[in-house]
Amino acid sequence: MKSRTLTGGILVTAMMAVGSPALATPPGPGMTATVIRKVTAGGTDWILREITIPPGQATGWHWHSGKVSGLVKQGTLSHFGADCKSDGVYQTGGVIQEESGPGYVHIGVNRGTVPLILEVLYVQPTGAPFANDAPNPGCDFQ
N or C: which end of the chain has fewer CB within 10 A? Predict the structure, then answer.
């Protein structure tokens, strides 16, 4: 039983490392993500994660290889596209859906005073990272 637990812990840690944005636009300090459940079928991964972003922090600029849907469990998510404009502010109970591909670069920011907690479902090609790093498109906010 110990080896199964250790292997599962290593797998979750490896998946989080692969899915973290690269250092060009890193997530803010204290941001955490935990895989709750993963199912693979027909070349597609269905992964549910809980992501916590501390007040004043952000995800880093990125894009996804598949569709992403999120539920705000606590706090407020301010979401911005590569044009530096807000494309949504999502309060507790709000749902966000993100498109896939390098043409949909974006960032999520917690401008609130409490930790932002998101439950996020990734539907993506098997083995794809959670996020693909993208350079800051020239926005100077947060």
Answer: N
Among 11-15, 23-27, 38-42, 110-114, which is the least confidently predicted range?
11-15
Alpha-carbon distances of 8 from 1, 13, 44, 49, 124, rounded to whole Å: 11, 9, 20, 15, 21
Among residues 72, 67, 90, 70, which one has the least CA distance to residue 80? Answer: 90
pTM to 2 decimal places: 0.81
- How many CB atoms lie under 10 A from the CB of residue 62? 25
Which residues, other chains included, contact 44 with Cβ-Cβ below 8 Å and sequence gap of 6+? 66, 123, 124, 125, 126
The candidate with the shortest Cα–Cα distance to 80, out of 67, 92, 93, 89, is 89
CA distance 88 to 53: 17
Domain ranges of the chain: 2-133
CATH class entry, domain 2-133: mainly beta
Cα–Cα distance for residue pair 40/105, rounded to 1 Å: 26
| Mean pLDDT, residues 6-30 taken together | 50
